[in-house]
Amino acid sequence: MSLSVSVKNMLSFAPYDSVLAELPAAHATLTGHTGKGSDFLGWLSLPCAFDRDEVEAVKAAATAGNILQAVGGKENVESVANCATRLRLTLKDASKVDYAGCMAAGAIGVVKPEDEANGIHVVLGSDKVQNVTDAFKELL
User: Fold this and answer.
1) Does the pTM of the predicted model rise above 0.90?
2) Do residues 60 and 131 make contact, with C-beta atoms less than 8 angstroms apart?
3) Model confidence pLDDT, tens digit, residues 41-71
4) Which of 6, 71, 96, 135 could form a disulfide with 61 if both were Cys (CB 3.0 to 4.6 A apart)?
């Protein structure tokens, strides 16, 4: 058993038929940036493809900047390192750390090691710790 449905008699295309002839000219005006307000049509020329590495670098830089702010700024950072999943920081004053700010920046967790008086570990995960560490170091 097969079912066949025709919308030809159910829908009216008459309103669209009247503007169909104008579509090629409208398209040419938009893509050629020649119509009224053409100086506002920059969004039509946005890139269609993005470099994944570049996008990840921008995300890492944003995360690093937000973490830097959350740990008290670059004046508060003494040293930076990382392990497989964590951004490891030694700070001048660990009391300045905004733990919620670190989490809002994209951290999975924030650890205050007992054996490091001014140390803090920002848990980021193995997929982004290296990029964020590199971006963090560039901000100092």
Assistant:
1) no
2) yes
3) 665 666 667 788 888 999 999 999 999 999 9
4) 135
